[in-house]
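Question thread 4412

I'm putting together a teaching handout and wanted feedback from people who do this every day. The idea is simple: show students a protein as raw sequence, then show them the structure tokens that encode its fold, then repeat with a second protein so they can compare. Below is the first pair exactly as I plan to print it.
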Amino acid sequence: MAMMTSSDVLKINNSEELVGLIDECIVEFPEIRFFEASPIEKITFNTLAVTGLPTAEFRSTDEERIWSTATLVNKEIKCRYLDASWMLQCAVAEESDWGREFALALQMQTHLKAALKKLAEQTWYGKYGGNDHGFNGLSGIIDAVIDSGQRSMVITANDGDDITDGSSVFAVRTGYDSIQYVWGEEGKLIRSDIYEQKIGDVLKGADYFSQRVGAWVGLQVTSKFAAAKIENLSAAAGKNGLNDDLMYDLIEKFPAGAAPQAFFMSRRSLGQLRKSRTPTNATGTPAPIPNEVGGIPIFVTDAISNNESTGSSSGSSSSS
């Protein structure tokens, strides 16, 4: 069965009018285009995660062996409501030389794009800042692997608490047995009719067009070794930025036979990686912009911060 991405799920389950808008907006977010996705009937579902393998051994035909079973954990995946609703003052919409319909379509487009940007940021950082009702992100889920005393999936580029411009690089796998998005309500975008209403009291207010737009979406992580990261990358003098040694150390975090399928990083980290590749040719031509390491593709995303010291790197440690 062919695997689907979020674009596929949303295009299958929404109107033709929305399909073009989704295609136009989603192209800016490589993580949403990369990770596989599944629609579910409601907004929660249960899945199984393998946390321990059973034993197996060679034996002679006249002997017995001790049996054990795989350790399976029942996980409930909860979708969270992503709100892209909008309002626009009627006078502003009608003032446009391109017409009211253009102004209303532009509002829908910009709010959908803002919602997808929030989804991308949520994917990496999850619930930070104490008031976020979204799902847990990969940064906190990766940290939890360390906390549980298992294989560390984190490489720290710079020790200490004096990093004020930290950034991370993520190595990930995708699929139902690793990481995927889950779209609730069968992947349908919730979209009401456009209403005209007065906002304010009787003597003071204005007329607005408004529309409810939203979707239910979650992040399913069913393997503790589906993601790893390099954290605390810095551009400050005397601090470590990204280089090939760190990238290959990151690959080594994954079990044999289950190498990462992609790297995600900020544009600054990509520049650091390129600069670390000192040219050795006679002309001193700068090294080309990297697009892979060890045959694994690199994706640049604006959703990964170069200022993680503000708190965005400390994602929640649970995983639903």
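The second pair follows. I'd like the answer to focus on this one:
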Amino acid sequence: MSTYEDASLIYYPSGYKAGKAYSLKPTDGTGDLTFTRASTATRVNESGLIESVATGVPRIDFTLGCGKLLLEPQRSNLIFPSATGSTQTVTTTAQSYTLSFYGTGTVVRSGTSTGTLVGTGANDRVFVTFTATAGSLTLTITGSVTNWQLESGSYPTSYIPTTTTAVTRVKDETSTTIIPTMTGVSEFTWFFDNTDMDVLEAVVVYMQLNLSGGPLRYYATNGGRFRGSTYFGDVPAKGKVAVKCDGTTLSMFKNGVKSASTLASALGTFVNFSGFNQGGETFSGGMQSMILFPTALSDDEIIALTTI
């Protein structure tokens, strides 16, 4: 198998501009990912520093050393100012929140939730997810707490700077135009690599292939799932996953193992790729790479492709 020669689409985080993330193949631009985000956002750059990224510009994030296209849902940092922590009280509702910060200090929660989050280093980000009740949550600071964030949700997302009020980062969205070599095919192999994911980034990945018979959806969390029209097996939050359709059967592979198969006769033919909403979240996480083949690769080829 020659991955480059046989693939219709190869995406790896590299070139980008406002509104566009360039795919390695095809080279004529028909497989490039269109990108939108109606606000500024931050990323960790190649030097390990947090920097601001302009509205509508994709983020290649290097939190774990290897660049990934960072795609996150809309979130708000509810505490301010965020650069240096100071004791404050915020209003919460009965839902999950995630608190995070850098530094060696501590943040003690009282009121609608209780507990203590202890920092481990000036350049280390620590976090805790908790369920609050409705009312007032007091966050008491001691020591060095920097770039801290309180957001609703069950995992931490990238740092959202605040000064005098809460700030919202709008969701990232990406999709492809129609890829000529994939148009109308009923056989395909779809490979996705999120090996370099980490819980300190978004550990939720939502994506879908749009087919003439309806969407084929994939989402991964810690203990997450892959879905076609019905539940189709657990997938890892970290790893390599591939989906093969030979026109009649849909098979899933994860980390070098064929894990499940189901009938795929109602899927129809390939249309395009896009993010999707599931439970209020959008395609999110760190895309290490994505490859689309216009044919059903053999099981042995896919096992080799997905083995870590």
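Top answer:
Good format. For the second protein you could add a caption like this: Confidence is low (pLDDT under 50) at residues 198-203, 222-234, 277-282. The domain at 75-169 is CATH 2.60.120 (Jelly Rolls).
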